[in-house]
Design goal:
The chain is mostly helical. The chain has 14 helices and no strands. It has a domain of 171 residues: Orthogonal Bundle (MetI-like fold). The relative contact order is 0.12.
Length: 305
């Protein structure tokens, strides 16, 4: 009659098994990290390296000379770049302010007991379902001077047609209008989620103390909603500051660079003039500005907690 005996596991085998079990998760997430490294980290690192070099289409075959901080210094002596920063902040402040005002109003409205509230909520989501390319092309047709529907209906009201996209004074309001139409629903939904998460007890106590609707809104809703507001503003600032496709399809940064944001400025130098070193420096300057503003808003969020 045979006997089956198990061999005792040595300390070395136990250690090897423990190491393999510890490394097992990396075998599953390793391919994803490899893809991210290839399509994200390497281009970022290479573009950062380029920002300290001179890379032009005519001279790159002869070499890519090191220029140090010269590209960054040239940026702030370039009048077009200063104008692009100013245009970007004008666009961001105007768009985000209007989106926040309209979004807060929609959120307060949808937070009430309304008939057909779910249908209204679904309808305001429609602009978010469209891609930016479709939005840009559609609004370019709508705002066309001769054949656009906007000018057609203005004519029906006895108003002269407006050069929405070809007149410098009207191009920026037109671009802001399109962005507001596209993303106000996003702000409204974020604020609506914050409103529905607010506790009821402070409002009941304020009502018992005789507070009216405005006082409850100003002294309770806004302070309690502060964190959600700051998150929405942070998200919209980042998304609006780097906007490219919608503006490019509407105006290509014109007329007379009235709507040329930093993103379009970078595109013009990087992919039209093929001055990649200078364009890379402009890109990282834009990223630095975004990080500074985002850090300020994030700190406000931390204080609100």
């Amino acid at each position: 009659m045979g006997c089956f005996c198990m061999q005792p596991i040595t300390a070395r085998q136990h250690w090897r098994h423990h190491i393999l079990r510890s490394l097992e998760p990396f075998f599953y997430i390793g391919p994803a990290f490899a893809v991210l490294l290839t399509i994200l980290v390497y281009p970022l690192g290479y573009s950062f390296w380029l920002s300290f070099h001179e890379w032009t289409l005519r001279g790159f075959r002869a070499g890519i000379p090191w220029v140090g901080l010269q590209n960054y210094l040239d940026l702030f002596t370039n009048a077009d770049f200063i104008t692009a920063i100013r245009v970007t902040f004008v666009f961001v402040i105007a768009a985000v302010a209007i989106e926040f005002g309209l979004g807060l109003g929609l959120a307060l409205l949808l937070n009430q007991d309304l008939h057909g509230k779910n249908i209204i909520r679904a309808l305001i989501l429609l602009p978010m379902m469209c891609t930016n390319v479709v939005i840009g092309l559609t609004w370019r047709l709508l705002l066309n001077y001769e054949f656009g529907l906007v000018n057609y209906y203005l004519g029906q009201l006895g108003i002269a047609p407006v050069e929405w996209l070809s007149q410098p004074a009207m191009a920026m309001p037109a671009v802001v209008l399109v962005d507001v139409w596209n993303t106000t629903s996003f702000v409204a939904l974020m604020l609506l989620a914050g409103l529905q998460a607010l506790p009821e007890e402070p409002y009941e106590a304020a009502k018992m103390d005789g507070a009216n609707t405005f006082q409850s809104f100003y002294y309770l809703t806004l302070p309690l909603l502060r964190q959600t507001i700051l998150v929405a503003l942070l998200w919209r600032f980042i998304d609006t500051f780097r906007i490219f496709d919608v503006i490019y399809l509407l105006t290509s940064g014109g007329p007379a660079r009235a709507t040329e944001t930093v993103s379009i400025y970078v595109y013009r130098y990087g992919f039209q003039s093929f001055n990649l070193g200078f364009a890379s420096a402009a890109s990282y300057t834009m990223i630095l500005i975004m990080l500074i503003v985002a850090a300020v808003l994030a700190r406000w969020i931390g204080r609100s907690e």
